[in-house]
Amino acid sequence: MYRKISAIVIPTLIAAGILGYMLYTVWGQLLDAFRHIVLSYLIVAILICLMAWLLRGWRYHQILAGMDSPVNIRIATACIFISQTVNLIVPFRLGDFGRVFILNHENQTQYSDGIASIVVERVFDIVTVALLGLFTFPFVLNVDPAYFLIIVLILGLGALFFLFLFFVKRLQSQNKYIQIILTVLHEMRKASLTPRSIVILGCTSIVIWILDVLVCLSVVMMFGQDVSFPTVVFAIVIGNLIKAVPITPGGLGTYEYLVAKTLNLGGMPDIYANLVAIIDHLIKNLVTLAGGIVSIYYFGDWVIPSIRTALESKSGGGDKS
């Protein structure tokens, strides 16, 4: 029991500590900075965030259709909303496994298809983010060259992943467990390696992440800060690359810290860099939370027990120690 509690409490305390430190360093200037908040910019940022969510739902609908497990766009969007809402609370992206149970309940989608769909979605996200980082890196001043190496490494791993999927159809095994893995890999291949899927998923992913950048840009404009668009893009890139490493729930703290540091490199003062990073992530998380709550009501009261089952099965629910 203590081990399961600490697995949630410790990452949450780390996130709270980072955010607390960021606010403490600019505490004396916060009141003056808050005078720059303009409601219209916040509304625009929220609307852009909602557009990105709808597009995410449509893309997930396309991924599942590529596996011959079609669901309507409402279910696809609601699945992502719920899984991402759970990810705001628990670390290690355990909320993703709840999506598998929801798809199976609502559409009789095989668990292997559910797992494969999540992997395809995540790979397209991380590769797209890394590509945006690669294109904007030369336009951002004073960036640690290590970031460039990390981006190239991620793109290299992405290329190897797709190359492996290309050849996976030749693999066969009589072992039951290996066959399960091969089934998941075959589904990934069907969903991501046809010319149609590459174009649709690739283009959609680019638009999704540009919209994500525009949310942050709206907050930057609200505070009247003069920072280049490539710097804002690169800040979002770095923030989301660290979110891919599940250190804290939903990347809380780590995301804000790196986004603020990158904006600071572009010439934005600490006070505004910290506030932009925190408000940007707050908008995205509140939209996610609101969407998650609506989605839970949409599916019904069976969702919470299913998610609890998924989390317990992945975190050693039978361990009483």
Structure description:
The protein is mainly alpha-helical. It has one domain. 77% of the residues lie in helices and 0% in strands. The chain is built from 13 helices and no strands. It has helices spanning 2-25, 30-34, 39-66, 73-87, 95-107, 111-136, 145-167, 176-192, 195-222, 229-243, 254-265, 270-299, 303-314. Helix 3 crosses helix 6 and helix 3 (39-66) packs across helix 8. It is globular and about 65 Å long. 41% of the residues are buried. Residues 317-321 have low confidence and may be disordered.
Number of helices: 13
**Mean pLDDT across residues:** 87
Helicity, as a percent range: over 70%
Q: How many discrete structural domains?
A: 1
Low-pLDDT stretches are: 317-321
Helix and strand sequence: HHHHHHHHHHHHH
Q: In a few lines, what is going on in this structure?
A:
With 321 residues, this protein is an all-alpha fold. It has helices at residues 2-25, 30-34, 39-66, 73-87, 95-107, 111-136, 145-167, 176-192, 195-222, 229-243, 254-265, 270-299, 303-314. The protein contains 13 helices and no strands.
Key phrases:
321 residues; mainly alpha; 0% strand; globular
Secondary structure layout plus pairing:
Layout lengths: L1 H24 L4 H5 L4 H28 L6 H15 L7 H13 L3 H26 L8 H23 L8 H17 L2 H28 L6 H15 L10 H12 L4 H30 L3 H12 L7
